[in-house]
Amino acid sequence: IKVILDGVYSHTGSNSLYFDRNRTFGGNGAFCTRQSPYYNWYTFYEWPANYHSWWNFDTLPTVNKMHPDFIRYIITDEDSVVAHWMKLGADGFRLDVADELPDEFIQLLRQRIKGINPDALLLGEVWEDASTKIAYDRRRSYFTAGELDSVMNYPFRTAIIDYVRGHDGGKALK
Fold it and tell me: Is the N-terminal amide bond of 118 cis, ω within 30° of 0?
């Protein structure tokens, strides 16, 4: 059995330790104090209640993925999130909304996990054809730059479902 963890690095929950909108974790989150060690992870338009969030869901504040503090915490520190779990035996990560992560972030993450375990898997959630994906006006390099080992193949999933339901006679499978 291989254990692949779900890496959600695009956003956090509004009631996570890092944001703590409901003060569940003692009021040290970015929503509670500008002195929070996590404050710079987020973009506040008007602190604390007006902030950038994933697809405008205020329960999912978006993270500044390339902020040096976030990069250290998630990837590069000796006991970063990915290093911690890889050293405990995780076999890789599935990246939630990979197309909303900068290529540079994915490349750093890949280097780190492969440095710990060269056989680790880095799988991306990409809903469209990942080989031709353009996100935020930029052609993605999931495969051409060797960023991801694989992607979740939703176009194939859709083709199978359409065929089973008799919608297209299997045209999408050719």
Answer: no
**pLDDT digits over 97-144, tens only?**
999 999 999 999 999 999 999 999 999 998 888 888 888 888 888 877
Nearest-CA neighbor of 69 among 54, 85, 57, 81?
81
Which residues touch 105 (CB under 8 Å, ≥6 apart)?
A: 9, 65, 66, 71, 75
**Residue 144 has what pLDDT?**
77
Does the pTM exceed 0.85? yes
Rounded to the nearest 5°, which phi and psi values hold at 123?
-115, 135
Determine contact, residues 7/82, Cβ cutoff 8 Å: yes
Residues whose CB falls within 8 Å of the CB of residue 13, separated by 6 or more in sequence, listed in order: 19, 59, 60
Q: Are 65 and 58 in contact (CB under 8 A)?
A: no
